[in-house]
Prior knowledge:
The protein is an alpha+beta fold. It has one domain: Roll (Ubiquitin-like (UB roll)), CATH 3.10.20. Helix content is 15%, strand content 35%. The protein is built from three helices and eight strands, in the order αββαββββββα. A hairpin with a 4-residue loop joins strand 3 and strand 4 (56-59). The longest helix is centred in the N-terminal third of the chain and has 10 residues, at 35-44. The radius of gyration is 15 Å and the shape is globular. The chain starts with a helix and ends in a 6-residue tail after the last helix.
Amino acid sequence: MSLSSELKYDANGLVPAVIQDAENGDVLMVGYMNPEAVERTVETGKVTYWSRSRQKFWVKGETSGHLQHVVEIRTDCDKDCLVIRVTQDGVACHDGYRSCFYRAWEPAGLQVIAERGVDPEVIYGKGASG
């Protein structure tokens, strides 16, 4: 039996995937997977997502070189969400931060609480996104 056949997908055929640093537990990002993206991730050991905006598969790091190598895949009790523990090459966020969760809510509003690791224009070029 395959992992993809064990999961419960939403009405769009997707399951959310929370990506976590296997070493320190930090949440790096959240993406979405359809059954084929799940299977590609299992087969290659590199996290593959389904892009809802572009309607195509993408491997994290295929453009930037900042790959996510799978250490472990977990599912929640309802089997409708994944936690994928990874070793992260470089940064996970297309804004150049280690984690996409680099802002925290404070009474004055959202504040950046992390240092940018890389300039996104250097990786993706002007006007490009990750």
